[in-house]
Amino acid sequence: MNKDAMSKEEEKKVTDRINELYHKKEKEGLTPEEEQERKELHKKFLANFRVAFKQDVENMVIIDKNGKEVTSERAKRAQRKKGLRKD
């Protein structure tokens, strides 16, 4: 797991709190403090999503219909740097 990514437990806590604040906002509105908390949680959630997505893309190996690997050189370099490739 990437050191910048949240654990699954932490991600669930953030998501649950975002949802809780969303429902409260819909029913009765949020205090300025809660609105600020909501914004910070969204930033944290999006940062985590980006880290995880980048990691997924960098770890991807692409094979064409003829069975030939066509993974981009950029992805291959990232994989080599992480020790995921030996070529």
From TrEMBL:
Keyword Cytoplasm: yes
InterPro entries: DUF896
Location in the cell: Cytoplasm
Residue ranges, compositional bias (Basic residues): 77-87
Keywords: Cytoplasm
Family affiliation: Belongs to the UPF0291 family.
Protein name, as recorded: UPF0291 protein IMAU30003_00061
Organism expressing this protein natively: Lactobacillus helveticus (Lactobacillus suntoryeus)
